[in-house]
Amino acid sequence: MEPADTIYTNGKWFPANGSKRRKPMAVIGFIGLGNMGMPMARNLVQSGYLVYGFNRSKKKEEAFEELGGRKAESLSLIAEKADVIMTCLPEPKDVQDVLSELFEMGISGSHIIDFSTVSPALHKEMKEKAAREGVEYLDAPVSGGTAGAEAGTLAIMCGGEESAFEKARPLFDVLGATITHTGPAGSGTKVKLINQYMVGMHTAAVAEALHLADESGIDQKMLYDVLSQSFAQSKIFDRHYPDFIAAKREEPGFALSLLLKDLNLAGEMAGNAEVPLEAGRKVKEMFEDADQQGYGGKDMSAFYQYTSGKHS
Ligand code: NAD
């Protein structure tokens, strides 16, 4: 079947050639095949969607082909062929550059869905540009980490028109377990940035708590076993300690530099809302220092190494 031979009906995309095949079909252009994007795009492939993957470093596109996806070769192919364009890129500038390039080319599809964590203001700008092209725009940041992306159990918080959200829902169902329409464009990102603010605070709490334990003669594993059944339990403690700190694993996961990016975005959001986030300001300064000291490329749980190293 040619990629263009798909129609949207009754909340799903189907082959347009009258085939009896029950599986929903849509052509997806997935841009950003990184720690999150690769397993998300693979899950879409495994659910029967035709997915063109595009990534800055071409090795990732080859790896995606091995998982059953197709190499996009160029952004123009995605502009031309994709019914739905998805982005999962590191920084606001990456999203702005890629989408601006696509808008210049002209987009033939119906939806743009951005899974990256960027700013509500950027989404507002992109949604306005999309509307001028007659394209629906959804900001749909995700939480649940690479494990959630692999398992298709992400929490997806989606801002945008409700009708556009409902049309995209079959795609979200492949990727996530908790899928919420949060309100207008940008609201998904506001929820995500509040989440990231708390992730930063919890990461700092775990790092300092373990460092305090080390210096007080308390065994880390015993501490974790007790606290994971106590009020100090958190998803972040459950993630950082067994899978990274105890396992001496440093590669991301979720890079510390990306968490710093999110704390900066949450700070901007708080500034706009005139909320001081006093405790968060100190934690953000510590993340800036950790980044400058070379921890940015490591998993965010390496904040424990930074905290311990600083005082040893
Ligand atoms: P990543 O750095 O692992 O992946 C990003 C990918 O995008 C890389 O493969 C990179 O080569 C590619 N890329 C960058 N700029 C590009 C461009 N201009 N054109 C094409 N490809 C480009 O990042 P990630 O961890 O997958 O995170 C992506 C987004 O998802 C970020 O905004 C992050 O904050 C968010 N996020 C990450 C996690 C996580 O646990 N890693 C969880 C939730 C949300």
Blueprint (SSEs and pairs):
Layout: E1 6-9, E2 12-15, E3 27-31, H1 37-46, E4 50-54, H2 58-66, E5 70-71, H3 75-81, E6 84-87, H4 92-105, E7 111-114, H5 120-132, E8 136-139, E9 142-143, H6 145-151, E10 154-159, H7 162-175, E11 176-183, H8 187-215, H9 220-227, H10 235-245, H11 256-272, H12 278-295, H13 303-311
Parallel strand pairs: 3-4, 3-6, 4-5, 6-7, 7-8, 10-11
Antiparallel strand pairs: 1-2, 9-10
This protein binds nicotinamide-adenine-dinucleotide.
Nicotinamide-adenine-dinucleotide is lined by residues 31-37, 54-57, 60, 88-90, 94, 97-98, 116-117, 142-143, 145-146, 253-254, 258.
EC number: 1.1.-.-
Pfam families: NAD_binding_11 (PF14833), NAD_binding_2 (PF03446)
Protein name: NAD(P)-dependent oxidoreductase
The pLDDT mean sits at 93
In what order do the strands lie side by side in the largest sheet?
Answer: 5-4-3-6-7-8
Total tally of structural domains: 2
Low-confidence stretches: 1-5, 16-23
CATH architectural designation of the largest domain = 3-Layer(aba) Sandwich
Give the strand tally.
11
Please give the oligomerization state of what you see: single chain
Radius of gyration: 21 Å
CATH superfamily of the largest domain: NAD(P)-binding Rossmann-like Domain
